[in-house]
Amino acid sequence: MARPSRVRRSIACCLLAAAALTGAARADQPQWGYQGRHGAQAWGDLAPGFATCKTGRHQAPIDIRDADTTKAALPEIRFGYMPARGRMVNNGHTIQVNMPPAGGIGLADGEYQLTQYHFHAPSEERINGRRYAMGVHLVHRDAQGKLAVVAVLMRLGKENQALKPLFARLPARPGDKVTLPLLNPIAMLPPDRGYYRFTGSLTTPPCSEEVSWQVLKQPVEISAAQLHAFRRLYPMNARPIQPRNGRTIESD
Ligand SMILES: [Zn+2]
To answer: Which domains does the chain have, with CATH numbers?
Structure first.
């Protein structure tokens, strides 16, 4: 098993590689997807670097069952996002917004900068077995390369004003990019910031572990038209639920 510092370095390296990715696939990156022979069940066998997808014991996403959570005095997540012009890219697996330095979050173990956020349809996390129409993952990194993700669940309802500037110009083809107007990611969060916390992994290859997950309990809403706009590009980009393997899920 790799030492934590090595794992962190490899996560940082893979994220940099992902940020440099301009199209659906790079010559040195094995093809992967959500269905068929490159689907989630096969990820661990597609490349030696993806082995954690099948051997990892702390994988994500998980189904968060209230009955299995541990009440904890979780500190509030200190959101310190600032308005910034993100770069929205269709990376062949999702729509992702790469962020310039524009603040981040404070957790019990330190400060994390927001590096990117991206979407899944349906949501990857489930709460008491319930899956939501969509979810957004806000990915943060600390000075040592450790990752912390904030997940926001989205259910069908009224039009989401915060997502309007994005969903009006979703880049249609893998590799397409759009520079967004000045936006503050705080607008995507629900008013109630209560959350579940657990240790998991990236939900895409290479499925690296030691990722700190914060799943906000209160969902936000998106309209059917917004969901449709995303699903026209990505009808299904959610990894299946992974075993909990005795992990503690904290709840505030
Ligand atoms: Zn994600």
So the answer is: 4-25+40-251 (3.10.200.10)
